[in-house]
Amino acid sequence: MKPKVFVTRPLPYAALERLEAACDLQTYPEDAPIPKERLAESCREIDGLLSVGARITEELIRQAPRLRAIATPSVGVDHIDVAACTARKIPIANTVGVVEETTADLAFALLLAAARRVLEADAFVRAGGWKHWKWNLMRGANAHHKTLGLIGFGRIGQAVARRGRGFGMRILYSARHHAPEAVEKELMAEFRSRDELLAESDFVSLHVPLTPETWRMIGARDLSRMKPTAFLINTARGAVVDEAALVEALQGGRIAGAGLDVFEREPAVSAELLQMPNVVLMPHVGSATDETRFEMAKVAADSLLDLLDGRRPPSVVNPEVFPGHRDTR
Ligand code: NAP
């Protein structure tokens, strides 16, 4: 009998071809969050789950006694109770290696848009405000040759650093561990404590996963350490930043502006942010390009099939569930 698989969003058919051929596939038909009850109902008899952003809780795992493999077309897994899956020996595949460059592009787009007031200027032209050339019109800040501080220096942080190097920027980073010497050398990246990085950077870009440790890691105290001319860029997760503290820092002119793809209570965005011309807002679309979204769906679908067939996919979040696994991290 073919394994039963549930997919929580309608993904491109071509990306699911191999999974569809090998499994009995059911798909939630709407490109919207699946209601909790509907998800539980759909998972009751499945072997595999392809979860696109749906919250996978311990309760849901309990309600799915046959579930033995999960795949998510994302790098972040903060929507999944990884510990509960691991306790049940359910492997979770994610799409490391697929989304990083695209997300780094967006981080850099936010950086440039905030520094050069791209959206403000666009709105000004569209509103008919452009009557004549002015010396002081839409003066922004240089990005080139400035200091770029990366909090989190894994795949995306390093990809942003490469873009920064192309702009002649000085690269600082902070993380719990130093990057390999070869990486530091290639990107001319210097390690700093978080406080040092905040004080020295013209652009602070966040690239840590959301964990209990990184929850609101950027709060009022951290923002007060930044230069008043500096910008905060967040393409990581909204809850890495204390959004109320960010609003206050922006209102008080304690930092110059921000570029945000993610929010603490998304899709809700603080009303104050919506009014601020020096803040660029995006609806969590870091990986949203035609090419990358297709690749994410395909890698997630193929990874789920690998797991159901007893093969190891390219990236598994909790490899300790595999028998005989030795932790080499
Ligand atoms: P990654 O390669 O795992 O890198 C994460 C970095 O964060 C590492 O440098 C890690 O270094 C650092 N880190 C982890 N915990 C930390 C802590 N407590 N304090 C300081 N640094 C810490 O991850 P990635 O692929 O770059 O992705 C980063 C995040 O971006 C993902 O987890 C996801 O949430 C987000 N993302 C967002 C979008 C979007 O659409 N906006 C798209 C893709 C990914 P140490 O272990 O040395 O600390």
Question: Describe it for me?
Answer:
With 329 residues, the protein is an alpha/beta fold. The protein is 36% helix and 13% strand. The protein is built from 13 helices and twelve strands. The strands form two sheets. A seven-stranded parallel β-sheet has the order 8-7-6-9-10-11-12, with helices on both faces. It has a five-stranded parallel β-sheet with strand order 2-1-3-4-5, covered by helices on one side. The model has no long low-confidence stretch (mean pLDDT 96). The structure holds NADP nicotinamide-adenine-dinucleotide phosphate (NAP). NADP nicotinamide-adenine-dinucleotide phosphate (NAP) is lined by residues 75-76, 99-100, 103, 152-157, 175-177, 207-211, 213-214, 235-237, 261-262, 284, 286-287.
What topology emerges from the helices and strands here?
Elements (H helix, E strand, L loop, with lengths): L3 E4 L5 H10 L1 E4 L8 H8 L4 E3 L7 H5 L6 E3 L10 H6 L4 E2 L6 H16 L2 H9 L20 E5 L3 H12 L3 E5 L6 H6 L2 E3 L2 H7 L2 E4 L13 H6 L5 E4 L8 H9 L5 E4 L10 H5 L3 E3 L8 H19 L21
Parallel strand pairs: 1-2, 1-3, 3-4, 4-5, 6-7, 6-9, 7-8, 9-10, 10-11, 11-12
Helix pairs in contact: 1-13, 5-7
NADP nicotinamide-adenine-dinucleotide phosphate binds next to helix 5 and helix 7.
Q: What descriptive keywords fit this protein?
A:
329 residues, binds NADP nicotinamide-adenine-dinucleotide phosphate, 7-stranded parallel sheet, 12 strands, 13 helices, Rossmann fold, 13% strand, alpha/beta, 2 domains, globular, 5-stranded parallel sheet
